[in-house]
Every structure is written in C-alpha cells, then in structure tokens.
Amino acid sequence: METPTSPRPRNEVKTQPAAQPARPADTGVSRFDSGKNQAKSVALSSPVTAPQGSGIQPGSYPTAADVKAIASIPDPVARNHAITQGYSDLSNAMGKLLGDDNASWATYGTWASKQAGVSIRGEDMPKFLTEALKKADDVMGPLGKVDDFLRKLGLPAFPIGDLASAGNEALSNVSKAIADGNQFVFNEVGQEFARFIDTFQGETKPDAAKVQKFLEGFPKDKPLLKEAFGHYAQAMSEKDPNKKAELMLLANNKIGLHEQTQLQPYVEKALNAPVKETFRNVLKQGIEASINAMPFPANLAGKAALKSGAVDALLNPVVDAAAGAFRRVATEHMMKLAVPGDALKLGNDLPPPKGMESTLFPPHLRSIQNPELRELLGKLDSSPDSLKGTGAKDWSRLDQRMNYIIDLFRTRQSDPHLFDPPYGKTGTTYPLPNAPR
User: Fold this and answer.
1) Which long-range contacts (CB under 8 A, 24 or more apart) does 373-376 make?
2) pLDDT digits (tens, 9 = 90+) for 20-47
3) What is d(CA 303, CA 145) in angstroms, rounded to the nearest whole number?
4) C-alpha dihedral (420, 423, 426, 427), degrees to nearest 10
5) From CA 110, how far away is CA 347, in angstroms rounded?
6) Distance between CA 171 and CA 271 in Å, rounded?
7) Rounded CA separation 162/165 (Å)
8) How is the chain split into domains, by residue range?
9) Which pTM does this prediction carry?
10) 322-336 confidence digits (pLDDT tens)
11) CA neighbor of 224 nearest in space, from 190, 244, 196, 252
12) Listed residue (190, 329, 342, 173) closest to 259, CA to CA
C-alpha cells in the first residue's frame, strides 16, 4: 500500500475541568523494569504508513494452537510468564499488520498480564501485611486478650507468625483467582488474535471476502469480539490517521468490555475471597494444636474452652480486624494496572501521560468523530473527555472498571513504550518447547 497524504491530526480539545497535576504523589512504584533510562513517552502524530504485513516471521508469534498449549501449562507462574510474552509477540505481529502508531488490545494485555504475575507469584503483600497487622491497634488489642487467656491455660502467648501465615493463605486464594482469570482470557482472546494474524499476514490490499470468512469464525455468543476484530480489519486499510486511531480505540474498547465481563466472576472471587474463614481456621488450629500438645489433665481446661465456644468468642474480634487489615493492604498493593515504567493505582484518578497534562489524549483521539465510538464512550465514560472521576473505588463493579479502562486505552494508545518487550527480550520462538500440546 502506498503512504497516503493524510489530514492533519486533531488538535482541538473540548473544554477540560480544572488542571490536574502531572503525577499524583501516590501513583505508586512498579515492580517492573523501572524504565529509568527510557525516553519520555511521545504521542505519535505523523501520517499513517500503511503496513504491509509481510514482515511477520514464522514462529515469531503464537498460533491458536500455541495459545491453547500455553494456557494448558499447569504451573501458574510459568504459565503467566508465557502468557505475558505471548501477548507481547501477538502485539508486535499486530503492529506489523496495522502499523505501530496505535496499540492493540494485546499490547495492553502484555502489561496487565505482567502485573498479574506479581500477584500470582505472591510478591505483593506478605511483608506489607505483617507490618500492617503489627501496627493495627484493632488487631493487637484483641490479640492481647487472647494472650491473657492462653497464659491462664498455661500456654505461651499467641504467635504473631500465625497471623502472617493466615494472611499468606488468604493471599494464595486471591492469587489463584487472578491466575485463573489470566489463563481464561488469554486462551479465549489470544486465539482470536492469532487467528487474525494467520489470516491477514502478507495482505497488501483489502479483501472483503477474506474478512467476511474470518468474521464468520466467531461463535454467536461473542458478538463484541466479532465486532472488535471487524474494526481491526477496517483499520488495516484505513489511510486517514484520525479514522484509523478511532477504529483501533473502538476495537480495543469492545475487547476490553468483553473480557472484563467474562472476568467478573474471577474479580469477585479475588476480592471476596473467604478471608475471615481463612484467618479463623488458621488461628484456631494453632490454639487447638497447642492445647492438644499439653499433657493430661492440664489440657482439660483448654479443651473445655474450645468446646464451649470461649476460644471462638475471643478470636472473633481478632479475625474481624485481621481480615479488615488484609483487605486494606490487598486493595492498596494488588489493585494496580501496569504500564511500562509505572504501576497505576486503580483507586486513583488516571494520571495523564507525560507531556499531555493539558491535552490528556494523543492528537488523533482528542476529538472523537466515529459515531459508534462516541456512542460507546457515552455509555462507559462517566466524565467525557476528562480524567476526573476515573478512579475505581470498587473494582468489583464492571462499570467502574470500564470507566477507568477506556480512558487508559484512549490516553495511552499512541505511547510507543507499550511495545517494549516485557522481559527485556524481543520475543519467543513458537511453539514453546516445554508447553503441553
């Protein structure tokens, strides 16, 4: 395809609310590569160069069969690592097909998956939780009463380590829910990206019949996915950079809405893990073990206290307070969304990209003209053309997640650093040698 003479990027911006700070002080620090040596993100505003798609090398991205094999890896840590790299390789292949002026959903998926890996590996909370429990008066006060009771029975004080153990067990439940969601979405959406690349690589001109045949491969219960990849197909041959950027954003938003809807039970499971039950079981088992280890008849008073419910009554305020501390720490340290060089706290309003503090959005997405995209944004965006109010106070709510995500997509779609390799290497050769087939 020849390079078009395209319209100038849109520089008009709708009236914005009061100026926002460039970076809130509590944005957070990513556990990823710090990106200290990276150049600042720059919004791409040059005319679109139509991609040829022929630069995609065989084995440089996972096929649909490879995606299924990766999703079948039993070890959640190894699986997440392969999923993150798989998303990155799919993203790069999509960039060769559609051009890298705009990120696809797979590009964002790379960084979301890498952040999920922090939780899957259990790196988020153990230290923070232990410190929070030690400093929480609502935990330590009731725990002192438990200590007094245990001493009267001739037992040592209750070990704070059991609280940390209970927190780690609760964390493992949360981590499993995150790992399951990571696996589910990659297996479903990743296969469609692979199928898209397989179908259209090497194309130099639009082929309506091929597009129609490709779209017929979607099941009827996934209309949003079908529509989204139809927009990607349109974007392949679109020469107007404004229209192309909007088609990409429309596709990304529809996949985002589909996958977040599918993820709802996993999100609820992660956020509503049986924390109280976990803390109660671990703490009570520790006390029971200590009582049972006492010789007869010294253990009779302890066994009577267990049977009468006295131990449960003493543990109730400890359990309530410990579970509350766990949820506070979980929200603070796990509810993040990763972008290169940073980790955004989802409860805070989305900060604008560096260099776009006043304009907020890249040039081709500052004024939305596509009617379907305008309609979708009208349904999902609670503060149109603004980042005020984007923070999700309750991540379990689909509407709050989408309100955050659509602005994340729109503000970062032209950030070239999103295409950076997540693990500092350019890609993987497929199929993976150790992935089950």
Assistant:
1) 373/246, 373/249, 373/250, 373/253, 376/250, 376/253, 376/254
2) 334 333 333 333 333 333 434 334 444 4
3) 18
4) -120
5) 21
6) 10
7) 5
8) 64-419
9) 0.76
10) 777 777 666 666 677
11) 252
12) 190
